[in-house]
Design goal:
InterPro entries: Glyco_trans_2-like, Nucleotide-diphossugar_trans
CATH superfamily: Spore Coat Polysaccharide Biosynthesis Protein SpsA, Chain A
CATH architecture: Alpha-Beta Complex
Helix content: 40-55%
CATH topology: Spore Coat Polysaccharide Biosynthesis Protein SpsA, Chain A
Number of strands: 9
GO molecular function, one term: transferase activity
Pfam family, one: Glycos_transf_2
Keywords: Transferase
CATH class: Alpha Beta
Order of helices and strands: EHEHEHEHEHHEHHEHEEH
Strand order of the largest sheet: 3-2-1-4-6-5-7
Shape: globular
Protein name: Glycosyl transferase family 2
Radius of gyration: 17 Å
Length: 266
């Protein structure tokens, strides 16, 4: 059974198109994780009245990536053999790409990523994007997957994972996507690029400079932390004298652990 996990935070202008794309796929279960939304996202989701949609509603803001882990746990409980992750604001024409990711998992991949920066498209990137790709590629080199993945990351673009991945990688680590990637590689799981979607084709709205800087700092810190995990060292998000926090400290790992513990120990 294929499940799709969709983090949703104030996406009233985009969530319907995103969910309609998923409803066109062979997904038996679609799990929107409504993450502290204050707009009409929740109503729009319920108004679709699809038996395949199983929303989870959190009034508190969970923080970046935490909804993925919550949704993955729900999918696992309900017997998913594969899980597709797609952010609620990604409403580009990407249905065929999502099918490619699903197909890669069906063919034996445990983690199929999206390449959002094809080699021929990297010219003209901002210094911030170039720096971020450097850290992403450095992580992939550290875990022995640079040749296979380039700079692809579960932090960017849709991706899919297998039931083996869900069984082997602690679900709490899905809240820090590069760490989940490092653990998959460390555990000998099969990781690959499943599709290519140039960043602009994802359909996500443009963000302001402040947000872009914080997102970049978050992902860089995640990559540094992932390298520590891969090397069995104490976790750190620092490089030199710089600590890359970004949005990391806003991740509600306390709520995530509470949810995971409640499920495992009713």
């Amino acid at each position: 059974m294929l499940a799709a996990v969709v983090p949703v935070q104030n996406e009233e202008k985009r969530i319907q198109k995103t969910l309609e794309t998923l409803l066109a796929l062979p997904a038996a279960l679609i799990i929107p994780v409504i993450n502290g939304s204050s707009d009409l996202s929740c109503r729009i989701i319920h108004d679709l009245k699809s038996p395949h949609i199983f929303p989870l509603h959190y009034r508190e803001t969970l923080g970046i990536d935490v909804p993925r882990a919550i949704g993955a746990r729900t999918a696992k409980i309900k017997g998913a053999t594969a899980v597709l992750f797609l952010d609620g604001d990604m409403n580009g024409e990407i249905e065929d790409n999502l099918r490619e990711l699903i197909r890669k998992v069906e063919e034996g991949a445990d983690m199929a990523l999206t390449n959002c920066y094809p080699a021929e498209k990297t010219e003209g990137l901002s210094p911030l994007a170039t720096k971020l790709l450097h850290y992403r590629r450095n992580l992939n080199r550290e875990i022995g997957l640079e040749q296979a993945l380039g700079s692809a990351s579960p932090s960017h673009g849709p991706h899919a994972v297998s039931s083996r991945f869900l069984a082997q990688v602690p679900l709490v680590e899905l809240a820090i996507p590069p760490v989940s990637l490092a653990l998959a590689a460390k555990g000998g799981l099969k990781v690959c690029v499943g599709t290519t979607i140039p960043h602009k084709a994802l359909g996500s709205p443009a963000k302001d400079a402040s947000h872009s800087k914080k997102i970049a700092a978050t992902i860089i810190g995640d990559c540094l932390e992932a390298i520590c995990v891969y090397r069995d060292k104490l976790r750190s998000r620092s490089s030199g004298t710089v600590d890359y926090d970004g949005y990391h400290s806003q991740r509600r790992l306390d709520l995530l652990n509470k949810y995971l513990n409640q499920v495992e120990h009713p």
